[in-house]
Amino acid sequence: PFKETESEDSSGEEYVHVRVQQRNGRKCLTTVQGLGTDYNYNTILKDFKKDFCCNGTVVQDKELGKVIQLQGDQRKKVSNFLIT
Question: Is residue 76, in this structure, part of any structural domain at all?
Fold first, then answer.
């Protein structure tokens, strides 16, 4: 019974990573990864695009899975959106 409780505690936390990648000049790209498979990425992307007035896409990565890419520096807006 102790082994089961240890495995539950260790797998309890998953992180969502919000990063900004510099493109060229003043242009940058915001990536959101680690949301999990329970969510519909296209619906989340649609809400992001409408609320933040930017363009974006969902990219399938071999290592990271599905990643949402948004144009511009949207870090604060994405984190506020996900928290509330």
Answer: yes
In CATH, what number is assigned to the domain containing residue 35? Answer: 3.30.780.10
In a domain, 24, yes or no: yes
Report d(CA 41, CA 35) in Å as an integer.
9
Range of the domain at 42: 15-83
Q: For 37, which DSSP code?
A: T
Q: What is the pTM of this model?
A: 0.80
Neighbours of 20 (CB within 10 A): 14
Per DSSP, helices labelled H in the chain are 2-10, 41-52, 75-83
pLDDT digits (tens, 9 = 90+) for 61-82: 999 899 999 999 999 999 999 9
In a domain, 30, yes or no: yes
Cα dihedral sign for 60, 56, 32, 21?
A: positive
Summary mean pLDDT of the chain: 88
